[in-house]
Amino acid sequence: MKLNISNILTLTRIIIIPIIVICIYLAGPFYGWLAFILFCLASITDYFDGYIARIRNEITNFGTFLDPIADKLLVAAVILILTSKEVIADWETIPALIILLREIAVSGLREYLAKIKVSVPVSKIAKVKTSIQLIALAFLILSESGITIVPIISIGKLALWIAGILTLYTGCDYLKSGLRHF
């Protein structure tokens, strides 16, 4: 395993996840802001690790394997802790569940396709979906900071629904592409 800047960023994203979860769990304005800042930093590394690997020509098997896992761990951990705290509750559990189920299904599909040497590239709409997911979760985390001026929670829940719809669309798109190889 070769550690380069990109892989270190990916590993850092994974290491930060429990700290984010603990901060959300502890609640209070300080911890809400800290969780928000750490989540934003972790989300930004999702962009930069791949970008740096490409421009420095340091794409590794380890990084290719670990990056999507880090993304899924971050999103799943935050969805689960926000659901346990009932920030995501009632009808909002539907898009959250769609997001979690799609991630599991696409991971399984990618694993199968990798065994038969087929690659399904990430579409532009999937990248938009990921961005909206991260924005939605950031707003929902920020709702734990005590801000009352702006309807942070409403913005986060609306973005979660948009992300859920895009997640459903991209999940169907991946399945359609992958099913051709069965």
Word description of this protein:
- This protein has helices spanning 5-26, 29-55, 61-84, 93-115, 124-142, 152-179.
- With 182 residues, the chain is mainly alpha-helical.
- It has one domain: Four Helix Bundle (Hemerythrin (Met), subunit A) (Up-down Bundle).
Key words describing this protein structure:
globular; 182 residues; 79% helix; single chain; mainly alpha; 6 helices; Four Helix Bundle (Hemerythrin (Met), subunit A)
- Backbone shape: globular
List the uncertain runs.
none
Q: What oligomeric state do the depicted chains represent? A: single chain
Secondary-structure element string: HHHHHH
CATH architecture type:
Up-down Bundle
In the CATH hierarchy, what is the superfamily?
CDP-alcohol phosphotransferase transmembrane (TM) domain
- The fold-level CATH name is Four Helix Bundle (Hemerythrin (Met), subunit A)
Q: Into which percent range does the helicity of residues fall?
A: over 70%
Topology:
Blueprint: H1 5-26, H2 29-55, H3 61-84, H4 93-115, H5 124-142, H6 152-179
Give a quick precis of the structure:
The protein is an all-alpha fold and 182 residues long. The chain has helices spanning 5-26, 29-55, 61-84, 93-115, 124-142, 152-179.
